[in-house]
Amino acid sequence: MTMSMTGFAAARGQGAGASWTWDLRAVNGKGLDLRLRVPDWIDGLEAALRAELGKALARGNVSLTLRVTREVEGEAAMRLNAAALRGALQALSDVEQAAMAAGVTLAQPSAADVLTLRGVMEGNAGDDDTGPLRAAILADLPGLLAAFQAMRAAEGAALAALIGGQIDQIARLTHDAGQAATARRPQVQAALADAIARLGQEVVDPARLAQELALLAVKADVTEELDRLGAHVAAARLLLAEAGPVGRKFDFLMQEFMREANTLCSKSSDIALTRIGLDLKTVIDQLREQVQNVE
Predict the structure, then answer these.
(1) Number of domains in the chain
(2) In this structure, are 211 and 245 located in the same domain?
(3) pLDDT tens digits along 52-96
(4) Is residue 124 one of the residues assigned to a domain?
């Protein structure tokens, strides 16, 4: 199955006293480039997410954003600092005794007043064991990846249909080039005969003439280029049916396609064959643009 490197998925999840939102998106790239924006206070989360994404994806510029919100807020997210409380009570006692010695009467502080003193209550979020939350988030990741891969597969199916049509077009043009090359042979032979007649037989060495004619025939022959183009078409169809990432193989094959098309045009001495060669180069270039999105 052909997979596209373009994809997007978003999801929500909750567990371990928190809720979170996912945002996963990717575009084409030469390799696998992972860019993660995740909470750094959850121990080991980024490394674990990076490892799982690396297993699931082969190529693409991938961005993952994870936003986590704790469901426990306010007082429930605070804890009593016993040492600070003892210190605060001792300080209040010292103040009360000093006031009594000075003949000053102070109002008795309430428990709520004591709790507002600095250090008596403190947040405990940073001291929590984030292991359960990390496990809950990682357990939610496969669903996100499934949706993401489903979109990439749908994009890949459309891409495969387009690529398959372009490969068929290259095959047709290669066949047309073979027919044009066959049709031009009598014209080439006639042109050589005319050239020989203009030179005059008395100034031409027969052995040298035969050698030059053989060299011209070899230079004008495009049989090898057409055979290689046919082989590349067969290889491209096999890649399109292959499971797994094939984008890099397609990239290399496009270079080989273009090399043969360029050679075909350079050897052509016929207008019809040259036009076919130019059409081939156009379709190959269009195909090269499409395979840039194949994983």
Answers:
(1) 3
(2) yes
(3) 999 999 999 999 999 999 875 444 456 788 888 888 889 888 888
(4) no
